[in-house]
Structures are given as structure tokens and as C-alpha cells.
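Bug report (template v2)

What were you trying to do?
Predict the complex of my protein with magnesium ion.

What happened?
Run completed; filing so the output is reviewed.

Input:
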Amino acid sequence: MAINWYPGHMHKANKELAKLLPNCQLVIEVLDARIPAASSNPKLDQLCRDLPRLKILNKADLADPEVVSAWQQSFNRLPHCYCLQSSVEQRLEKSDLLAAIARLGLEASEERSGQIVIVGIPNVGKSTLLNHLAGRKLARTGNEPAVTKGQQRIRLDEHWYLVDTPGLLWPRLEDQEAAYRLAMTGTIRNTAIDLEDVAWFAAELLLAHYPERLAERYGIAADCDSVERCFEAIARGRGALGRGGSPDWHKTAELLLNDLRSGKLGTLSLEKPDGQARPAPLLTPQPPPD
Ligand SMILES: Nc1nc2c(ncn2[C@@H]2O[C@H](COP(=O)(O)OP(=O)(O)OP(=O)(O)O)[C@@H](O)[C@H]2O)c(=O)[nH]1
Ligand SMILES: [Mg+2]
């Protein structure tokens, strides 16, 4: 099933962002450290033109530290761009932001406060970041996409305002493998995806690149190369069974995705910075059997 998710509120938020940007001096683009490529909005470059960009590799606690550092280095080679990491244990601090502003050559004006906008895909941690920088819980946060529905501006200090924005995707997710990675990590509302399809894709990817995690958590044999057997083992091990004791594919899919999204399968990097996404072995995601 092709994945696309561009509800009406995103269309509106996109227009509101386009109006706001001419009055901003800096764009903070929050990326998911597990999928820095798939979580980069291709429409943002057109919208932001040559505004300086601070890329934040957020949720770094859920990704492989070495791969995140490699991404950070590769982003730091881009012009007008500076990249930092942020995670639950080590959040981006206000002092880091002010240092980044200086590094990007921006100066606070004495007469008029400048404006910094925080943008990114849904559920990536934009509002959490705004609250942390503000030192107070001003924006609503939640572990589901599309929690923020409108812009929210706060004062960061005497020189800068900070604006939180709703999470944005784009009208067509052309790269469907990237779309599946977005879905696996919780960017797309569950009602807009086929959960079993996405979990099947996730299991393929884990079997190919992180079989030891499946072995550790579910006792799946390290040489298992069948997604169906992997699903069956999870279902039996976790009691996700339907009538007659056969595996309940839907429950199993939910279980696997919840474990993956919450970090119970350990740190995962699903893309590498050399442009080579850690590929799922199949080009077209295959649905689970009926
Ligand atoms: N593991 C981990 N979780 C994080 C991190 N930052 C934020 N989160 C969690 O990610 C979820 C989404 O956070 P939000 O701040 O609401 O995300 P958002 O980007 O504002 O989402 P929308 O408003 O829906 O676009 C929440 O459950 C946060 O607790 C992080 O660095 N690591
Ligand atoms: Mg938000």
C-alpha cells in the first residue's frame, strides 16, 4: 500500500510557514537521528531559500552514535548550515543555540528582536525542544504525530523569539522506502498506514541489518531469514495469538512497531550518510500473508 499523509492542517501550516519565513533569521530543522534523510523535507529548501539552517539530529538516544556523528559531519559540510545532536540525556541547551547562532554569523539586533522558527516532520520533538529551551512547558507535546496544530511564538531572551510550528510532510512521498521508514518510526498516523505492511517492512529491515536485536528480544534464531517465521516467533513468544492459537498478525505488528519506536530493540540507524539508505531487501514492501 502506497503511503502518503498530507491532511488539511498540514496544507494550512505550510502556507502559514511560507508567510512567517521572510520575518525569520534562522531555521531550526529538527530531524530524526535514526532517519536523517527520510526526515528531511524536500520542500523546505525552496521555502527557506538561503536562510541559515541549524539542523538538529534529535532522538539521538534511539540511534547508533557513530552513524549519528557521521551524519552530523556530513551536514556540517553544507553551506549556511550547522548541525548539532540532541537526545533525552543530552538536550540542546539555550547556550548551545546561542553559540550556533554566533557560529552561523547571525547577530542579534539591538533595536529589534530576531525570530527563529523550529520546523520538521511530525512527532520528531520540535515542541519538546521549544519547551526545553524556554525552560517551561509552554507547548503541548505527545507521542503521536500532529499534536501541534498552529504556530506558537515565545520569547527566548531579550534578542530572540522562537516559533514552534506544526509537523509537516509534503504532498507526495515519492520515495516509498523512505515513507516506510517514516511510518516505522512513528511519523505518520497509524490510521493512515497499513500497520501490518509497515511492521513487515520493519521486520525485513531488522532481519537484514539487526538480527541480533530480534534474537535478544524475541529469541529469534540469528540465522532466521523469513519474515513470516520471525512474525510467528514474536506472536508465540508474546502470546499475540488469535482463535485456535494461530498468530494474530495485527497484534504482532503493533507489538513489533511499539518496541522499535520506543527503543526496546536498542539503538537503530536506518540510514547512512553516504546516501545509501540501509536498504530493506525488497524494493516494494511485501504484505504479510492473510
Ligand atoms: N527518545 C526520545 N524521545 C523524544 C526526544 N525528543 C522528544 N521525544 C518524544 O517524542 C514525542 C514527540 O515529541 P513532540 O515534541 O510532541 O514532537 P513534535 O515534533 O512537536 O510533534 P508534532 O507537534 O506532532 O509535529 C514525545 O513523546 C517526546 O517525549 C528525544 O530526544 N528522544
Ligand atoms: Mg509539536
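What did the reviewer find?
The chain is about 35% helix and 10% strand. The first strand starts at residue 26 and ends at 32.
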